[in-house]
Write a structure and sequence with these properties.
globular, about 15% strand, alpha/beta
Length: about 270
């Protein structure tokens, strides 16, 4: 099986490749990539170095994702496409244009959280995009299971810079990274205690990098029973499942002008 991971974008200050490679290496160590080849696209280049992750930014990156999906869908080289991005950029349009299975990592993680529990919390980076995540969960039909979307107050650009600057083995000794882990742990505990979350979703890729450290902190705090779902892992597993059971997104759910079995009404 061969999968392609498509990042939301590439810009002058964010390089997804090192973080994605580390995350996929972690999946491989856990045995999730047996007989699966996963390649990583570099992302569609956008010139903006802005740290803003709001609705305007989301609109700007969507067209690039669709172009990438159409490109890989038509190559005949891959079995499925995994779209990254905690905000779910271009997901519906990607499913409409692709001729092979397409998964979105937030869409996949939400479904997995719904399978294992009744109230999930999402841990994110900053406030504006956290509200977009809430809207996305509601759009996917799981608003009734969302306990909260909590944010740690560190931008993804800042987190990428930290991870890029420090090797994996030395990160836990870096005060700035220790603070990020502490802030993540604090928001996880708040979601568990205040909003009664029974599972947690880590979406933004730099947050997924710290899964093991936060897991240890939660275990030490008495919350070993609360599972953590990392979105890239969920997206990859959903893609594998769709390929294995020979499913593709339903044409009537993601229709184009080429739809033959047009319904009388929607």
């Amino acid at each position: 099986m061969k999968l392609i991971v498509v990042p939301p974008y590439l810009n002058p200050v964010v390089d997804w490749q090192p973080v994605d490679r580390e995350l996929l290496s972690n999946l491989e160590k856990k045995g999730q990539l047996k007989e699966v080849e996963v390649n990583i696209d570099e992302g569609y280049f956008i010139e903006s170095p802005s740290e803003s992750r709001d609705e305007e930014f989301l609109a700007n990156i969507t067209i690039g994702i669709i172009r990438k999906v159409k490109e890989y869908s038509g190559k005949g080289e891959y079995d499925a496409i995994v779209i990254q991005g905690v905000l779910g950029p271009g997901f519906a349009a990607a499913r409409a244009v692709s001729r092979i299975p397409v998964t979105g990592q937030i869409h996949s993680a939400i479904h997995m959280a719904s399978l294992i529990g009744e109230r999930f919390g999402v841990i994110h980076t900053v406030a504006p995009s956290s509200l977009i995540i809430k809207h996305r969960v509601e759009e996917y039909g799981f608003g009734h299971k969302l306990a909260s979307v909590r944010f740690i107050g560190h931008s993804s650009t800042y987190l990428y810079r930290l991870i890029r600057t420090h090797q994996k083995e030395e990160r836990i000794k870096v005060p700035e990274i220790k603070k990020v882990i502490d802030d993540m742990t604090a928001q996880c505990i708040a979601a568990i205690e205040k909003e009664r979350a029974d599972s947690l979703i880590f979406g933004c890729e730099p947050l997924q990098i710290f899964e093991d450290e936060v897991r240890q902190s939660l275990d030490e705090s008495g919350y070993s029973e609360v599972p953590i779902i990392c979105e890239l892992s969920a997206g990859v597993e959903m893609a594998k499942a769709m390929v294995n059971i020979k499913l593709i997104q339903a044409a009537k759910a993601y229709p184009t002008a080429a739809l033959k079995a047009k319904p009388e009404y929607w």
